[in-house]
Specification:
The complex is a heterodimer of chains A (319) and B (436). Chain A is mainly alpha-helical. Chain A has a domain of 216 residues: MetI-like fold (Orthogonal Bundle). In chain A, 67% of the residues lie in helices and 1% in strands. In chain A, α4 runs antiparallel to α6. Chain A is globular and about 75 Å long. By secondary structure, chain B is of the alpha/beta class. Chain B folds into two domains: 187 residues, D-Maltodextrin-Binding Protein, domain 2, CATH 3.40.190.10; 188 residues, Periplasmic binding protein-like II (D-Maltodextrin-Binding Protein, domain 2), CATH 3.40.190. Chain B is built from 19 helices and eleven strands. In chain B, β4 and β5 form a beta hairpin. In chain B, α18 runs antiparallel to α19. The longest helix of chain B has 26 residues. Chain B starts with a helix and ends in a 7-residue tail after the last helix. The chains are: A mainly alpha (319), B alpha/beta (436).
Chain lengths: 319, 436
């Protein structure tokens, strides 16, 4: 009975069969009950932590969003129902930020998908230097976003950066809306294409080599093999990759914060929420914006899962 | 399988011992916590430490002041100078975040001149009363004192002030312009002669744009808010101010990157020789001396240009006020220490070493200061006639409404822009609505 001396909470040593020693039925079912209880107990710390760090803040944000609560006027806090949501949804600032965010999301994810697929194929087919290729492709993803964003910002600043020198004299692309938006997208694509490529590479590994060879024997061209065999087989991986990236892109903050700080109409919804929370100290309005972002993210995830049938990674694909 | 079965004894009869272990583990937590807090506490050593949070000073004058006051206290307190982030927004965010959490490790706070009302209304800083108030106001310039007063109560003591002057090149402009219209005419004349002619001013979408507008509206005889800070005032002077901004943007005097310029870009443009005029703070003077000695020979200053020829300009004042945190554990010592930090010697040192204009009137007659600050007379005149930015707890929102609407200056439609500002300020004063 070595297990009896075991400290609570530590994993049991492998190879102890003491629990199965008695073949008694009632003891077994009692054992099963205890096991289930233990299962819950073992989960409990994780559940408590999840509630403390996720459910509680989310719930508190929803609660704050129903309050008129400005840190500067602690005495004037009161319940105002949905009026903060009304204020946000009727504000042109919210809708400007929303469409800017949608634009950045759609364009950057589309570009990332195409480039990521190309990179994944290269990584998949590379025979020589496979490790080097995969590692070098992943470098941008490994660089801290804020650091990379500062590099981009300096590179595009006139008289300072090497990229700005390629432009006509006096051009400051980060000070105009459309050039700045494209530069934000460029920074975002540069940064996260490797992530997309990695997810797609996992999908490519699912395509059986024999099927491709059989198609080749049947006379299918490379393009036909790609569109008729690889893409359909990779669909679950592609949808998961798209879902992950869309959710990430919609919450874009750091690149914009460093590159333009949201000036010249380049602010995303996250920037708007940040400004209302941390500059205006308006917890009610700021929380309402945060909850709306949360809802948008929920809608995006729901759409992907229900309409396109994206499956959670590791789950069985439903047909 | 074996792993699951191995667990059984643990979850069975052994429930109680495990329970007590848990209890013991929990019992240790408060103990640990008390040990940790004891570590952070300096009460044991006898001398209380006062934490002074202020802008990051590179000259060393602030650290010297902290050390000097600590020594002068005779062991009653020790001031620890903590540097806030360089940007004003970052400074405010750190202070607000910690004060909202009732952090008691902040004692003396260096506030930008626009924050006192906000911090006072949120009850984050203490009112100055009695002897401390008397000492704080004695000999202090009147306009900086306005920035630290909210609802007729004093909430901070002016530490240093700042103001803009007109800087110009004597080789291009023999006599400085007195009004904005005159300045634009001169610049356009220079442009026609193919000479450097830009007027350098802060046109980017940020606080500097609000400062520019505030100076112009006050110079035109108006204000952004009414006297009790309950409603926007604006009116015809606001339209006049917006028109001046638009006039500059439309004229050849405007720098092509006007809509992206802050103080430092203005300084660089002047130093590189493309501009004839610059509206900026006195830090540009030592900088020009160091970076372009040739141009420095012709680098001159004059009072801020007027909007109307018959009304003196009222440049917006800047600077830092010192306040005492409501959560300080040593408020009485903090008031005393704050007064020491801004006393005559320390303000003089900050002015001579760090270039910060003092808030004590008497220092402007100090020969050492007048020598280091050849423009001390103009600065004093500007501070005495100066205007303050709207004094309201929602200043941040008001400022954002102004700078957001007036950016870029070339897009200003005087009448409708002022209407937009009015609507947004109305929202801001009720702390409603979304800020951009």
């Amino acid at each position: 009975m070595s297990t009896r001396a075991q400290p609570a909470g530590a994993p049991p040593p492998p190879g102890t069969e003491t629990g199965r020693a008695e073949p008694d039925r009632s003891a077994l079912s009692a054992g099963a009950r205890q096991e289930r209880r233990l299962g819950w107990l073992l989960c409990a710390p994780a559940v408590v932590v999840m509630i403390a760090v996720t459910a509680y803040p989310v719930g508190y944000a929803v609660y704050l969003s129903l309050q008129r609560y400005d840190l500067r006027f602690p005495g004037r806090a009161e319940f105002v129902g949905l009026s903060n949501y009304g204020a946000v949804l009727t504000s042109s600032f919210w809708w400007d930020a929303f469409w800017v965010t949608m634009f950045i999301t759609a364009v950057s994810v589309a570009i990332e998908l195409v480039l990521g697929m190309g990179l994944a194929l290269v990584m998949h087919r590379t025979i020589f230097w496979r490790g080097v290729v995969r590692t070098s492709v992943l470098i941008p993803y490994g660089i801290v976003t804020v650091v990379a964003a500062f590099s981009w910002q300096y590179a595009w600043t006139p008289d300072l950066g090497y990229l700005a020198e390629l432009l006509p004299q006096g051009d400051a692309p980060l000070t105009e809306q459309w050039p700045a938006l494209w530069l934000i997208i460029l920074a975002e694509v540069w940064k996260t294409t490797p992530f997309m490529a990695l997810l797609l590479l996992a999908g490519l590994a699912l395509v059986p080599e024999e099927t491709l060879r059989a198609a080749m024997v049947d006379g299918a061209t490379a393009w036909q093999r790609f569109t008729r065999i690889m893409l359909p087989l990779m669909k679950p991986a592609i949808l998961v990759a798209l879902l992950f990236r869309t959710l990430d892109a919609f919450r874009i903050f750091d690149n914009i914060y460093i590159l333009t700080a949201g000036a010249q109409g380049t602010g995303s919804v996250s920037i708007l929420g940040y400004d209302n929370l941390f500059t205006a100290l308006n917890l009610g309005i700021g929380s309402a914006i945060s909850v709306l972002i949360f809802i948008c993210v929920g809608i995006i995830a729901f759409t992907f899962v229900k309409l396109f049938g994206a499956a959670a990674p590791g789950a069985e694909v439903k047909r | 399988m074996h792993a699951r079965c191995g667990c059984r004894p643990v979850s069975g009869q052994r429930g109680r011992p495990r329970g007590t272990r848990w209890l013991r583990a929990f019992a240790v937590l408060p103990l640990l916590a008390s040990v940790l807090t004891a570590c952070g506490d300096d009460e044991g050593s006898g001398t209380p430490t006062l934490n002074w949070y202020n802008f990051p000073d590179d000259s060393g004058a602030l650290q010297k002041a902290a050390d000097g006051c600590s020594r002068a206290s005779g062991g009653r307190y020790r001031i620890s100078y903590n540097k806030l982030p360089r940007a004003a927004d970052g400074q405010r965010q750190q202070l607000v975040r910690r004060l909202a959490a009732e952090d008691d490790s902040l004692d003396i706070l260096g506030l930008d001149v626009t924050w006192a009302a906000e911090f006072a209304e949120a009850r984050w800083i203490r009112e100055w009363t009695g002897a401390a108030k008397r000492q704080a106001t004695e000999g202090t310039l009147r306009v900086p004192l306005q920035t630290s007063t909210w609802k007729d109560k004093l909430y901070a003591v002016p530490y240093n002030a700042n103001t803009q002057l007109l800087w110009y090149r004597k080789d291009l402009v023999p006599r400085p312009p007195r009004t904005w219209a005159e300045m634009l005419d001169m610049a356009e004349a220079l442009a026609r002669q193919g000479k450097p002619h830009f007027v350098e001013i802060q046109g980017a979408q940020y606080e500097g744009l609000t400062v520019w507008f505030n100076t112009l509206i006050n110079s035109a005889g108006g204000t952004i808010l009414n006297a009790s800070a309950t409603a926007p005032s604006l009116g015809p002077p606001a339209v006049r101010a917006a028109q001046v901004m638009r006039d500059l943007a439309d004229s050849s005097a405007a720098d092509p990157s006007l809509s992206n310029q802050m103080e430092d870009q203005n300084r660089l443009a002047m130093e590189s020789g493309t501009a004839a005029f610059e509206l900026n703070y006195p830090f540009v003077y030592p900088s020009m001396k160091a970076n372009n000695p040739a141009l420095f020979k012709n680098f001159r200053w004059a009072p801020y240009p007027r909007v109307d020829a018959d009304r003196p300009a009222r440049p917006t004042i800047g600077g830092i006020d010192l306040a005492v945190s409501a959560y300080s554990r040593h408020p009485d010592l903090a008031f005393e220490a704050a007064l020491c930090l801004r006393n005559r010697e320390n303000q003089l040192a900050a002015a001579l070493e760090g270039g910060l204009p003092p808030t004590l009137r008497a220092l402007y007659d100090e020969p050492a200061f007048m020598k280091e600050y050849p423009f001390s007379r103009e600065v004093l005149a500007a501070l005495e006639a100066g205007s303050v930015r709207p004094i309201t707890p929602v200043y941040q929102n008001v400022s954002i409404a102004v700078s957001h609407t007036l950016s870029p200056p070339s897009g200003i439609e005087p009448v409708s822009s002022v209407d937009t500002i009015k609507e947004q300020i109305d929202d801001a004063l009720r702390s409603e609505g979304v800020i951009p």
